[in-house]
Specification:
Elements lengths: L1 H6 L2 E2 L11 E4 L2 E4 L5 E2 L3 E3 L4 E3 L2 H13 L7 H10 L7 H13 L5 H111 L2
Parallel strand pairs: 1-4
Antiparallel strand pairs: 2-3, 5-6
Length: about 220
């Protein structure tokens, strides 16, 4: 049943090679080919991403329609009857009218057809609402929580970046202090070394004088 129902709305890509020409000649008059059901590979663009008509999702939605199938001749039976006229060379309006004329013999009215169609639209809307709720739950679990973590890590990174900035400034300041202290140390060491050398030279100078005097006293005062 599902396969038959699916054939009313989906056309396989493999059928492209067998498509009829865009126009057919009917008794010498050009008739535009009627609109075909959506293919299962149709791409749908959204502002953030690209999507496609998914075969598994289509099956799930059609299962919901099948489960809620109304009794008697309704939209689905009307759709099947239209499908049966698919290869007959007549325009779309004629196909609809011909199918409706047959359905009318079974007590079908336009209001009943439209109401049954709205019923199946409602079934699809309920599936959409259920999917949306499930999607929002997954979005919260798989995306929302992760986004919270991202915010937390951003805050941590910002805090640590401020600390790094502060530490970098302190390191730069300390490096400048080290340079200044090295300069002072080098100057102090130079002064101390000079004083030390001056002292040694002065000491040796005087000591030498004293030693020379001792030698002279020994020499001259015997």
């Amino acid at each position: 049943m599902l396969k038959n129902l699916k054939s009313l709305f989906i056309v396989d890509d493999s059928s492209d090679e067998k498509k009829e020409p865009e126009h057919k000649e009917v008794k010498g008059t050009a008739v535009k080919k009627t609109e075909q059901p959506v293919k299962n590979k149709t791409t749908i663009k959204s502002p953030t991403s690209h999507g496609s008509v998914d075969d598994a999702i289509i099956d799930k939605l059609l299962q919901a329609i099948e489960k809620n199938n109304l009794e008697g001749f309704d939209y689905l039976e009307f759709k099947k009857a239209l499908k049966a006229l698919e290869k007959i060379p007549m325009d779309e309006a004629t196909k609809y009218r011909s199918t409706y004329a047959t359905a009318s013999t079974m007590g079908v009215t336009l209001d009943k057809l439209i109401d049954s169609t709205k019923h199946y639209i409602s079934v699809l809307d309920n599936e959409n609402n259920s999917f949306t709720k499930a999607f929002e739950g997954q979005l919260t679990t798989k995306v929302g929580d992760k986004e919270k973590e991202i915010v937390q890590f951003d805050a941590i990174i910002k805090e640590k970046s401020e600390k790094i900035k502060q530490l970098t400034e302190e390191i730069t300041k300390h490096q400048a202090q080290i340079s200044e202290l090295r300069k002072i140390v080098d100057e102090s060491k130079a002064k101390i070394d000079k004083t030390k050398n001056d002292f040694k030279l002065s000491y040796h100078h005087l000591r030498t004088q004293l030693e020379q005097d001792v030698e002279k006293m020994k020499q001259y005062l015997k």
